[in-house]
Amino acid sequence: MRMEENRVSFEPKLLGFLCNWCSYAGADLAGVSRIQYPPNMRVIRVMCSGRVDPEFVIQALELGIDGVYVMGCHIGDCHYLDGNYEAIRKFDMTKKFLSFVGLDNRIRLDWVSASEGVRFGEVVSKFVEDIKALGPSPLSGDTPDQELLEKVKAIREAVSSNRMRALVGRQRKITEEENVYGEKVPEEEFDVLMDQAIKEEYDRHRILLALEKDSKSVKDLGIELNLDPSIVLEHTLTLKSRSQVDFQKIIGNTPIFMRI
Amino acid sequence: MEKVGAVMVIGAGIGGSQASLDLADSGYKVYLIESSTSIGGVMAQLDKTFPTNDCAMCIVSPKLVETGRHQNIDLSINCKILDVSGEAGNFNIKVLKKTLYINPEKCTGCGVCGQECPVEAIDIFNEGLAKYAATSVKYPQAVPLVYAINKDYCIGCGICQGVCKAKAVEYDREDEEVDINVGAIILAPGFDEYIPPEANLYGYGKYKNVVTSIEFERILSASGPYAGRVLRPSDGDIPEKLAFLQCIGSRDYTGNGQPYCSSVCCMYTAKEAVIAHEHMHQIKPTIFSMDVRAYGKDFDKYIIRAQEEYGVQYIRSRISSIKEVPETKDLRIKYETEDGKVMEEDFNMVVLAVGLNPPNDNVFLAEKFGIELNEFGFAKTDKFNPVQTSRSGIYACGAFSSPKDIPDTVTQASAAAGCVNQLLYEKRGTLITEKTLPPEIYVNGQPPRIGVFICHCGINIGGYVDVPDVTKYATTLPNVVMADRNLYTCSADTQTIIKDKVKEFHLNRVIVASCTPRTHEPLFQETIREAGLNRYLFQMANIRDQCSWVHMNEPEKATEKAKDLVRMAVNKAREIEPIERIKLPVTPKALVVGGGISGMVAALNFASQEFETFLVEKQEELGGFARHIYHTLEGGDVQEFLTDLIKKVQSNKFIHAYTDAEIENIDGYIGNFKSSVIHGKKKERTEFEHGVVIVATGAKEYHPKEYLYGNNGNVILQSEFEEMLNNDKATNKKSVVMIQCVGSRNDEHPYCSKMCCAEAIKNALLAKEKNPDLEITVLFRDIRTYGFKEKYYREAREKGVIFLQYDEDNPPEVIPEDSRLRIEVSTPRKEKIYINSDLLVLSAGIYANREENEDLAKMLKVPLNDDNFFLEAHVKLRPVDFATEGVFVAGLAHCPKTIEDSIAQANAAVSRACTILSKDEIEAEGKTAMVIPERCTGCGMCVENCAYSAIELIDDRRFGRVAQINQALCKGCGACSGNCRCAAIDVLGFSGEQIFAMITGRC
How many domains in chain A? Predict the structure, then answer.
């Protein structure tokens, strides 16, 4: 019951990243046309939606923002030729990561043109409404969900990892044009690869965070992170080869790993 | 008389704006004169543009803002020309600036006057579909954003003067006459659309659901009267069955309309149909047309997509009348199907694709400027230079000289500017003003001292947001040393206040919380620069457009939001640093690749401005494609023109022409290229430096494999037929058949080659002139004699040339019979027709030189389209530019086009290039990406992600292989930064730190 009341009276804190040329201009036109919409969103202007680093989005959620909206020019309209295609790739990856922690419905990507003032008001209103229905972010308020916060931190580090940035950065080239062998990798094939990388990097960065506090065995990590120990082992060894973790000591028959 | 380094541009639509920007950027003072109260013309009224479906407002408004703010463009609205005297190089023009009853110096465009105005008048911008106030701007994003009182509607109640806090309303403001002295004049008054007369057969004006295409454009627009929903005017229902009627007022010999083709209607209709379906999926558009004239670059592909992806139905039938069904207000249309059946069908709404007329004041303009009009009332222009009017020193561009679309208008606008450059180059830089600014105060490493200026905007912000409270709040924020509030922060007196406060408080960061940075940031940046601060030490918080105006009913929350926005701006301001704009030297020389007409015209234009030019032609002779053309359809003598051109090029001391030459290498970037050429029989190698490149490599004629070409001597190409006719070798023929679209508009080459219809008609007319008894049959799919070329199509029919449409799925068959040919034709009605002929003439398409283009494209880092023609930076507004700066395109290398269009494009490319070559150095954008070499691993991902080829890998002495940003080319979009694996790239002005600071400020 309290939760229900909470939802009704709850005013979400939202953040928008708007590209300078279309969406920001659309937001201005909403103003000029005196379109009324709820005042929950604060806008950060960027030159292009392609500039929106996934880290920005995760950072906002980590700080307790209830929802993040990324807006750019309609496909084909990008002032910088194809920045919005870049935005799609980055956003899709971010969303997949967030689906592990149930926060994926708190971010949204949309295209608003400079003449869509009315539509700007509509989509923002809809976002406010949808986030209200979801209720406050578990990371907001004075007592954010610590366990979730750890997970989101892991996601922030994962999206900034070399591997994920390399995959996202190369994705268009490889699937739409050609790779270094002059071949085109089918979109579906790349998606499988991407999904796997997302899952792996998420787990690996959780392991890294868990080891940051104190050194642990593979089994302890498995229990703490609710992961199959065999998978934890695999990841831990990969992280060792990346020089991110190392053996600390062996207690009985169990090796203990530490963060470097 | 001495020449004057200033230019007057009449008409501030997209054409006039482009010409003004080109000239102002090339060192001339520009007087831009507009008759209405804001700039932008028809393009600002459009919803989307073909063939890319770009949002018109998104792409045009940055250009309009730039025009409105340019230091060297003196923009006057609501003007009338009174008198013109003088001659090329020195004209005197008397202009009447009609009063707006509002002082443009004081008006801030806040719009309160319009909201309080009790008079509702017809909204012209929205084509009468909505109401507006007598005190108004033309449209919400208008430039300049100055309100005007329309005296025709105003009842003089005086309310607007009372509510205007800026005291800008002055009822006693009078008209003003000014004398302006310029060296050249460009006329760009645009067109007026055809409006069906009162008693018309389409029921326009009588039936509510019959609208014109330009009215429909406003209906489609998201900022239009129906907010982008497609509704019919009679009852607001969605018109599921929507009909478009083509050629309304065009190709009309009845005297009600114009005999010429309006050139753009086929495409804008396809676009409107597509967008209507896109907005409301239940809408099923039907287009009634004669020929579908999709002759431009990538136009045919658009028509195919309209049919296949959007279900647009084409019916080849000209509709002569419409009846309304009184009960439903539906419209009944009678038409004939391709197989000859007569049908009657009801539609919910009908859009009339109205043609383009010359502007209503064409005769007035012609008289005032002393220029001739052609038989249709458009400006008469030179046969080979489509922007040269009949009077020297006066140029025309855009729809004033013939109906045309946006890219052609923009091209001509630049071409006119190119011709002005040729005329006035000695006076470049004599009349422009440059501000002297104080040296910048050194602030690096100092703790931030932030000053915040919060705007009431009259009551626009102050009426909803508690401005005093926000101001008080701002003073509590860390590093804020002062906060002030102003009635209008943008007014002239406030600029002085800001400058004083910078001095008094030793501010090193300034924030203005008011309207949108998109329009006002440059103004405030200029102010703080005048106060000695680097212009990037500035931040804006948008508390009007994105706060007070959109949360009018929630003032408390709006105040809360305004505080948040100010706090976020302060957070960012703490992180910002001065940015230095780098300056690059310019080598004032040009490289022109290709020695055909386009290349030679470009080279001569450069040379006449005394820019040293390198002209590189792969063949042994200059001349290119035009060497095989004798005349144009309009009667221009191509050979004479070409011979003259070659002679001028060869004798010009500023041109180094290399024939039998090949580009070996091109290195460098805008202003600073270095190239090498291998040329001549001895394969000599020459190296040179230059500041710009023009690509004019041309194209080739298709050599058909079909229709027995090459196997039967009686099957020839149009170019061969033209040669025969001009040498009187075809006199013994009795019957000639021509086949159109050979090698064009098929799966392999899906585009229209544009010139073949005109070529066929030109040759048919010449053949008929030489032998009136000759039987000529033209087998076609669509006859695409756009614009005034329609006249010759009609003439050919009148002279007895037979035009027969063939079924595109069953192309004609050719069977040799003794010394003659038997041609079997299937018509769209599935009838078979047999023709015996002496000669079969094939209209072969125009193909790109694939390998050559690919090689050159790689060297210049510019793209090709699917058909291997060069791809310009933007098909609508940057038709001769490439995304890579300093490189331009002209002529057939861009796409098939006429000689006149190639010449226009060549002059346009020169004009664009002059914006670079006219400067000793160019200033690059400050907000660029920046590599932190310690972090970079040299993976090269950013190199590929950059749309502007601005990043390359270099070998650094300390860091090894790392990425390096060429600040001359970087546009600061930040795509590289968001993708960098190592977080080694940041964007100045939008750095990760700065954005994180704003995110933190939100919480």
Answer: 2
User: Based on the domain organization, do A116 and A239 belong to the same domain?
Assistant: no
Assess whether A128 and A171 both reside in one domain.
Answer: no
**Closest CA of chain B from A142, distance in Å:** 12
* Residue stretches of chain A with pLDDT short of 50: 1-5
Same-domain status, A67 and A121 = yes
Q: Is the Cβ pair A113, B518 closer than 8 Å?
A: no
Rounded to the nearest 10 degrees, what angle do helices A83-99 and A146-159 cross at?
A: 150
DSSP-based three-state secondary structure for B835: strand
A121 close contact with B: CB closer than 8 A = yes
Q: CB neighbours (10 Å) of residue A208?
A: 21
Q: In the 8-state DSSP scheme, what is residue B280?
A: -
Residue A145 covered by a domain: no
* Listed residue (A52, A33, A79) closest to B61, CA to CA: A79
Determine, for residues A81 and B883 on separate chains, whether the beta-carbon distance falls below 8 Å.
yes
Are the Cβ atoms of B978 and A50 closer than 8 angstroms?
Answer: yes
My answer on whether A48 and A168 are in the same domain is no
B17: left (phi over 0), alpha (psi -120 to 50) or beta: alpha
Q: What pLDDT score was predicted for residue B92? A: 97
Contacts A–B by Cβ distance under 8 A: 205
CATH number at residue A254: 1.10.10.10
User: Which is it for the CA torsion B550, A83, B267, B15, positive or negative?
Assistant: positive
- Domain span at residue A12 reads 2-134
pTM (2 d.p.): 0.85
* Residue B293, C-beta contacts closer than 8 angstroms, at least 6 positions apart: B261, B263, B266, B267, B782, B784, B786
Angle between helices A23-32 and B56-69 (to 10 degrees): 80
Ordered mean pLDDT values, 10 residues apiece, chain B (1003 residues):
96 97 97 94 89 81 87 94 97 96 88 81 69 73 83 83 89 94 98 90 92 92 81 90 96 90 96 93 95 94 94 92 93 87 93 96 97 97 96 97 96 98 96 88 93 91 94 97 92 89 96 91 92 96 94 94 97 94 93 98 98 97 94 95 97 97 93 96 96 97 94 95 92 92 94 96 96 95 96 96 94 92 91 94 96 93 91 91 92 96 98 96 87 89 86 90 90 86 88 93 80
Looking at CA atoms only, how far is residue B848 from chain A in angstroms? 22
- B-chain CB neighbours of A55 within 8 Å are 992
A171 and A85 belong to one structural domain: no
Contact B546 A13 (CB under 8 A): no
Between A24, A44, A117, which is nearest B223 by CB? Answer: A117
